[in-house]
Amino acid sequence: MKLDMLAIGAHPDDVELGCGATVAKEVANGKNVGIIDLTRGELGTRGTADTRKVEAENAASVLGVAFRLNMGFADAFFINDKAHQLAIIRMIRKYQPEIVLCNAIDDRHIDHAKGSKLVSDSCFLSGLLKIETKDEHGEVQQPWRPKFVYHYIQWKNLEPDIVVDVSGFVATKMKAVLAYETQFYSKNSNEPETPISSKNFTDSVLYRARDLGRLIGVEAGEGFNVERYPAVDSLFDLK
């Protein structure tokens, strides 16, 4: 399956929180989009790996993506080494995405920056001819390097390099986020409180989208950091 865009997150819910509206918009535009979670989020204070799996599947259904899979890396303890890179390279070569979206370059949770660098490095290495990988059928894979790697913004208010107009897709994003019933605010929950379980946090996801939209003159936006200068054919192409 050839993908237009592959969104990768260290944990189930990272993609929804960081770029859920962008994913939903591109799906609505007819793009082929997939999601990969690096870990099962098994060390999260609330819920379990099993509940997160069900919630992730429900959220993927809301977003309308072609598929969602989990790499099964160790939550909090995965590292950016050859074994993990090769595992990601196999996925990149299998699905051949034009664009890869991945975790924030700097954030409160250590897995986010680690996941960001792991995926970015793997995207580069995936284009090297002399790195040999095989698919699940034992067939040698061809090199593939995505054209663009964009890093979404998470807990920290990083300054974006580009902002995507996601007007009309924030409701879908929030529905996908709230599919993680164990993780976010619920007045009926008896789970321990965490930094993301407050109503203030859930509200902040919506506030950020509205604020980024305000800054570019639209209803809502999602911000991304880039690894190289964005290029346009003409200044008139910029909104």
UniProtKB/TrEMBL annotation:
Pfam families, per the entry: PIG-L
Lineage, top ranks: Bacteria, Pseudomonadati, Bacteroidota, Flavobacteriia, Flavobacteriales
Cited PANTHER family: N-ACETYL-ALPHA-D-GLUCOSAMINYL L-MALATE DEACETYLASE 1, N-ACETYLGLUCOSAMINYL-PHOSPHATIDYLINOSITOL DE-N-ACETYLASE-RELATED
Organism: Hyunsoonleella pacifica
Molecular function via GO: deacetylase activity; hydrolase activity, acting on carbon-nitrogen (but not peptide) bonds, in linear amides
InterPro entries referenced in this protein's UniProt entry, alphabetically: Bacillithiol_biosynth_BshB1, GlcNAc_PI_deacetylase-related, LmbE-like_dom_sf
Protein name (database record): Bacillithiol biosynthesis deacetylase BshB1
GO biological process, one term: bacillithiol biosynthetic process
